[in-house]
Specification:
This protein is α+β, with helices and mostly antiparallel strands and 836 residues long. 49% of the residues lie in helices and 16% in strands. Strands 16, 18, 19, 20, 21, 22 and 23 form a seven-stranded mixed β-sheet that branches. Strands 3-4-9-6-8-7 form a six-stranded mixed β-barrel. Strand 21 and strand 22 form a beta hairpin. Helix 11 runs antiparallel to helix 21, helix 14 packs antiparallel against helix 21 and helix 21 packs parallel to helix 24. The radius of gyration is 34 Å and the shape is globular. The two termini are 40 Å apart.
């Protein structure tokens, strides 16, 4: 222990004697370790962290293979063999008849207008089964949570539970148990508040209010799912009984599953033998580990996070190489000190131990500063990935596993870069070292330094090239033509049900809103749809076209939005044939429809041929509509996705009322019209909630928030890598040039010109850069191919990106060498020849 404390004191004195070196090394490590800690935290939360519930390892997520045979209302996450959404009748049958689960819970997302103390807002809601909290083992922060008796029959139990975050942030932790909360204008009794940290059994879902599944019609008045066997909308998670294994449970459940499906088949519209085979013979109930919960968002986050993690690991590798090279240079400067200690009897082990102690101190200091940097970096990452004004499932807290990983990273990095200078002392030449003779910079230590330089250049090129393809992706996404003008376009949503309007009054109030918006000063046009544009969402389905014979097993999905009569004109989607909708296309008029070019060409060969034909939904003749117009294709789901077939229908002709998203095209800047819109809506009805009023360009930016986060981080890491490379190259080149003072003096004494000396130094560093670039480019091109799924209209091997990256690296290398080169060219030959 005495030796250890002595080494620590001496190491600290040595580090403090070179504050510039110490600050550079510690900051380099801190940036790398802080970024690493932030990214590992996100990966841990998204992919590895268990739900904050009792015994999460006992949870199983249910899914099935085979044909659903009805309407699916989902958040995504399905594959052909794993469909994760079930009907409410099927959930109840599985819950009541299974013998393998101690509890089976169901949940579905929704949105509702909530009023508390005369303040109304739109909030996310989760519809849950009565045993939801009990089965998961979630406790109440105050009051009580939902129980099975709260889920009896339709509209019987208007009770609600608040999330802890909503209670704290919106209700200021006021006493709420037993108080009344208006949900869509309907009074709900607040039972209590859920425990902090818990959100949902579906990771990424962040409800503010929980209500029983049997209150579905109050939350979503336009739909009735509770008795519909063909509406798939619930995620189901079960808790296995004690001593029940996953395989045993699946073997027990599947006979029950087949039996229940057989009972549902007579309810299907298609009763053919092929439909029966898809519905019954090809179906299987799956149980998957549910400790992390089901998440439709996890797969979309996995690739971006892993890409960023790879970049962080490159930055850490650069930091290790950089600090190792700095220690190598510093160790060479201290060679006389080490030689003196060897001469006085010190062993190699003692010298190596001293160097390891110094490296460990640097590593610990870098890790400590990195942990201080990690939380703000993490908060910034969460904000970027969530998008404007949105909450996130991620937390800025760092748990013990991440701290352990960071500590291990710091320890390993310390040991790696401490070994570098120690290698110079493996076979010390005491006489030469004590005389402090300088060589020409040759030998093993110089080769190692050159390897360090090459690694820094290679890592920098990898990061700059990666940053380049992502920046190009963002530029391409922002410049893509969606088929209509996105400037001077405001958008917001309005759901009259949230203000308590009954179904019969929804369409009239929406029509009134459109009329008022169209009459506002500075407004060119106003329109609305129930299927928002470029919002990463879609309402689609199959259609039957009169006179068209579908191919065997043809499954051609068509976008089926309900729109207002001026929606297409407001967006500026040009007419190709026929006419637009007009006020004459009323609820009592002949049903009409407008299709896009893709639809017209698929079914009729050309836009003109489509006019006058009739279209309806399968097995629903009452939806028969005549095509009166064809418009140009426009992107709908996102700027990434190509335009698909679309059929627009007037919302006044819908069988059920729909919630609309409104679009307002302005003459002036959209921001100046926003306050007028809010005032106009308030004049119609102060209870109407204007939600997310913003420009369409900002909404589009929100949909590419993950790409923006990757591009920004990649650019940041690329700049950091370039800075680290510049520092490392300068340090190594400056020392190497100083070692060659006598050689340079001899050259100049023999008649060499200053420019010749500068060219010599530059040629060496640029030659080394050229070799590193030549080795790295194939590796980089191979690595960037793995990023293909995240790119848009840019090749992973884009020549322009690599040309810029190479130019940056060569410029940095030249700048790092120019100061040592100029210093070398200014050497006085007489003084240089006397240098030892």
């Amino acid at each position: 222990m005495a030796r250890l404390f002595s080494d620590l004191r001496f190491a600290l004195r040595q580090i403090l004697r070179s504050p510039g070196f110490a600050i550079t090394a510690i900051v380099t490590l801190a940036l790398a370790i802080g970024a690493n800690t932030a990214i590992i935290t996100l990966l841990n939360q998204a992919l590895l962290h268990a739900l904050p519930v009792k015994d999460p390892s006992e949870l199983m997520v249910l899914s099935f293979s085979g044909n659903a045979g009805g309407h699916t209302d989902s958040e995504g996450g399905d594959t052909p063999d794993h469909k994760h959404y079930f009907s409410y009748p099927m959930y109840r049958d599985l819950r009541d008849e299974n013998t393998v689960f101690s509890g089976l819970v169901a949940a579905a997302p929704a949105s509702a207008g909530v009023t508390w103390n005369n303040h109304s807002e739109q909030v996310p809601v989760e519809l849950v089964s009565g045993d939801y909290f009990e089965t998961l083992g979630v406790q109440a922060a105050t009051g009580r949570l939902l129980v099975p008796s709260d889920e009896t029959f339709e509209n019987a139990n208007p009770v609600a539970v608040l999330s802890f975050d909503y209670w704290k942030g919106h209700l200021a932790e006021a006493p709420v148990a037993g108080k009344t909360l208006l949900v869509n204008g309907y009074p709900f009794s607040i039972a209590g508040v859920a425990a902090p940290g818990f959100h949902s059994v579906v990771w990424g879902r962040l409800p503010d209010v929980y209500v029983p599944l049997t209150m579905q019609r109050v939350i979503e008045p336009e739909w009735s799912y509770l008795s519909d066997h063909r509406s798939y909308w619930l995620s189901i998670v079960g808790r296995l009984r004690a001593n029940e294994t996953q395989q045993q449970a699946m073997a027990s459940l599947n006979p029950l599953w087949i039996s229940l499906r057989a009972g549902e088949f007579p309810l299907q519209v298609d009763q053919s033998a092929k439909a029966r085979e898809r519905f019954l013979s090809r179906t299987h109930l799956n149980l998957d580990a549910g400790a992390q919960g089901f998440s439709p968002y996890r797969d979309s986050l996995r690739t971006p996070l892993l890409i960023i993690m790879g970049m962080v690991l490159l930055v850490i590798a650069m930091a290790v190489v950089n600090v190792a090279s700095l220690l190598l240079v510093r160790g060479a400067i201290r060679v006389r000190e080490f030689a003196m200690r060897f001469a006085l009897g010190a062993t190699q082990g003692q010298i190596f131990g001293q160097l390891l102690t110094e490296g460990l101190l640097l590593g610990v200091a870098g890790a400590g500063l990195g942990l201080l940097l990690a939380p703000p970096v993490l908060r910034a990452l969460i904000t970027w990935m969530a998008g404007r004004g949105q909450t996130s499932a991620f937390s800025a807290s760092i748990d013990w596993r991440v701290l352990l990983f960071t500590s291990a990273t710091a320890l390993i990095a310390s040991l790696i870069f401490s070994v570098a200078p120690a290698l110079q002392l493996w076979s010390p030449r005491l006489v030469d070292s004590l005389k402090q003779q300088a060589g020409t910079g040759s030998g093993g230590s110089l080769r190692f330094r050159r390897i360090c330089v090459g690694l820094q250049i290679g890592f920098s090129l990898l990061l700059i090239a990666g940053a380049g393809v992502f920046v190009r992706t963002i530029q391409n996404l922002r410049n893509v033509d969606p088929g209509f003008a996105t400037d001077h376009l405001l958008t917001f949503s309005l759901v009259p049900e949230f203000a308590g309007y009954p179904p019969s009054q929804i369409a009239p109030v929406e029509q009134r809103v459109l009329e008022v918006l169209a009459g506002l000063p500075g407004v060119r046009a106003a329109g609305a749809t129930n299927d928002p544009d470029l919002a990463n969402d879609n309402i689609d389905g199959n259609v039957e076209v009169a006179g068209y014979t579908p191919k065997p097993d043809e499954d051609y999905n068509v976008e089926l939005p309900w729109v207002s009569d001026h929606y297409l004109q407001t967006l500026g989607i040009p007419l190709v044939a026929g006419r637009y909708f007009s006020p004459a296309d009323s609820a009592t008029a002949t049903k009409v429809i407008i299709v896009n070019e893709t639809f017209a060409r698929y079914y009729f060969g050309s836009p003109q041929n489509a006019l006058g034909h009739h279209v309806n939904r399968p097995h629903r003749p009452e939806t028969d509509s005549m095509i009166v117009g064809v418009v140009r294709d426009a992107k709908h789901v996102s700027v990434r996705d190509p335009a698909s077939a679309a059929a627009y229908r007037p919302f006044v002709q819908t069988e059920k009322p729909v919630g609309l998203t409104f679009y307002v095209r302005t003459w002036q800047t959209p921001e100046t019209t926003a306050s007028s819109i809010r005032a106009a809506i308030a004049n119609i009805d102060s209870k109407l909630i204007v939600n997310d009023l913003t420009t369409l360009n900002i909404k589009i930016d929100d949909t590419i928030s993950s790409e923006r986060a990757i591009a920004l981080l990649a650019s940041t890491f690329g700049c950091l890598a370039t800075l680290l490379a510049g520092i490392g190259l300068y340090g190594i080149q400056a020392y190497s040039t100083a070692q060659r003072t006598r050689e340079i003096g001899i050259r100049m004494a023999l008649g060499a010109q200053r420019w010749t000396v500068v060219r010599l130094i530059l040629r060496e560093i640029l030659g080394l850069a050229g070799i590193a670039i030549a080795v790295t480019i194939p590796v980089s091109m191979t690595a960037t191919r793995a990023l293909r799924s995240q790119l848009f209209n840019v090749s992973p091997t884009d020549g322009g990106v690599y040309a810029i990256a190479i130019a940056v690296i060569v410029t940095v290398a030249a700048l790092a060498a120019v100061i040592p080169a100029r210093r070398a060219a200014s050497v006085d030959p007489a003084r240089a020849l006397r240098t030892e």
